[in-house]
Amino acid sequence: MGSEYKAAIYRERGQVDVVKLQFPVCGEQDVVVRNLMAGVCGTDIAAYKYGDPRPVWKNSEFGHEVVSEVIQKGDMVQGLELGDLVFPNLGYGIRDKRRMSNVGAFSEYLLLPQCELGHSVLKIDSEIPLKTAVLLEPFIVGARGVVGLNPDATKTAIVFGAGIIGMSAALMLKWYGCGQVMVVDISDFRLSNARSFGLLTCNPNNENLFEVAIDNFGEGKAFSGTACGADLYVDALSLTVALDNFTQLAKREAELAIIGVHQQPVPIDLKQLCYNNWHIHGCGKLPYEVIYTDVLDLMKSGRFDLSKLVTHEYRIDQICDALVMGRNADEAQKVCISYL
Questions:
Q1: Is the CB of residue 86 less than 8 Å from the CB of residue 80?
Q2: Do 143 and 101 contact (CB within 8 A), yes or no?
Q3: Is 179 left (phi over 0), alpha (psi -120 to 50) or beta?
Q4: Are 294 and 314 contained in the same domain?
Q5: Which of 66, 203, 240, 305 could cross-link with 38 by S-S, CB 3.0 to 4.6 Å?
Q6: Virtual torsion, Cα 114, 96, 94, 135, nearest 10 deg
Q7: 162 closest CA partner among 260, 267, 66, 63
Q8: What is residue 2's predicted lDDT score, i.e. its pLDDT?
Q9: Residue 291 and residue 236 in one domain
Q10: CA atoms within 13 A of residue 119's CA, in its CB half-sphere
C-alpha cells in the first residue's frame, strides 16, 4: 500500500483512463478492500464500444464483478477479519445505488463505508479458487433468473446464449436438478466449453435447431402443432432471435426467463402466448445476499471446474485490451483483470 492507487475511469466511447487516486481513509464503521480479480461484464463492454454510459457513468470508477480481500477494518465492523475474501455487493457495498455497475472493480482498492456483512459485503469461502470466486456475480445473475422457473429433476431446459450469463444459467439449471440442458449459440468456441461441462449444444448456423431440439427433448404439443418437449427456456442472448426461437420451439405451459437485457422492444406472438399459456419471467426477484449461497454451494462442491471459464487475464493498465477481447466470442469466455 502507498498513498495512491490505480483506478480505471470510464470517459466515453473508446476511452478509459487509468489514473492514480488518493488511498482511502478507513473509518470506524468502514472496511478497505484490495481487489484481487475482477470480471469484465457485458455492461462494461457495451459502454466502451457504443458510448452509452448508462449504467456506467462518465468520469467514474467502474466494474462490479470482483473478489476482494479485507485489508483494513474499523473497530465497529462485525463479522469480518483482515484477510477475509468478500464480494462488495454492488451499489450496497459503496452505499450508492446509482453506481450498481460502477462499484470500482477496476480499481486496486475500494472503501466500503458503513460495512454490513450479509448486506453490503458477502463473504466468500477461502477454499474457493480465485478464478472461480470471481464468477460469483454473473453466476448470481444466472441463479436469480432460473430459480423462479422452479427447475428440478422432472424438467429439461434450453438456454439461448453461451456467454458467461448463459453458461451460468445452464450450469445452475443442472445444479438445481435438470437432467438435460441445451445451450444454443453460434460460437463454436463457447459451445465447445459448454460441452466440456456435460451440456447439450446446438449451433443454428449449421444445424436445424428444431430438429436438434426434438431429437434431444422429444415432442410436445402446442397450439400450432408439434413443439419441442423441453419445459424451461432462458434468454441470455439479448437478441430478437432468442424470442423467435422460443416461439418456434415452446410447447404448451413452457416457461421462459429473460436474463439478457434487451435495449429495444422485441416482437412476440401474443396469440401463441395466449393459447399455449406460456409463462414469461423477468430476471428474478431474490436479493443477491439470499441467492448467493446457492452459488457458493455449487462452487464449493467441485462438481464443475468453473475456473476454466476464465480464458483471459489482463493487468489494470491493459483495461482497454480487456474490454475489446471481451467481445470476441471466438476466443473469449470470461475476461478478467488480475491485481496479483
A1: yes
A2: no
A3: alpha
A4: yes
A5: 66
A6: 130
A7: 260
A8: 77
A9: no
A10: 9
Mean pLDDT by 10 residues, the chain (340 residues): 92 96 96 98 93 83 97 97 97 89 95 96 97 98 97 98 97 97 98 97 98 98 95 96 96 97 88 96 94 98 96 98 96 97
Radius of gyration of the chain (CA): 21
Those residues with Cβ within 8 angstroms of residue 93's Cβ, 6 or more apart along the chain or in another chain: 87, 103, 110, 112, 120, 121
Whether the model clears a pTM of 0.90, i.e. scores above it, the answer is: yes
Polymer length of the chain = 340
45 falls within a domain: yes
Residues with Cβ within 8 Å of residue 175, at least 6 apart in sequence: 294, 297, 298, 303
d(CA 203, CA 212): 10
Which CATH number does the domain housing residue 207 bear?
3.40.50.720
Bridge pairing between strands 219-222 and 225-228:
antiparallel
If asked whether residues 221 and 273 sit together in one domain, one would say: yes
Label the pairing between strands 310-314 and 65-73. unpaired
Could you tell me if 121 and 31 are in contact, meaning their C-beta atoms sit under 8 angstroms apart? Answer: yes
Write 120-123 long-range contacts (CB < 8 A, 24+).
120/88, 120/89, 120/92, 120/93, 120/95, 121/31, 121/80, 121/86, 121/87, 121/88, 121/89, 121/93, 122/86, 122/87, 122/89, 122/288, 122/289, 122/292, 123/79, 123/80, 123/84, 123/85, 123/86
Residue with cell 443477491: 288
Say if residue 83 is in the same domain as residue 165. Answer: no
Residue 39 to residues 44, 99, 245, 311: CA-CA distances in angstroms? 10, 16, 29, 11
The residues with which 87 forms a beta bridge, in sequence order, are 122
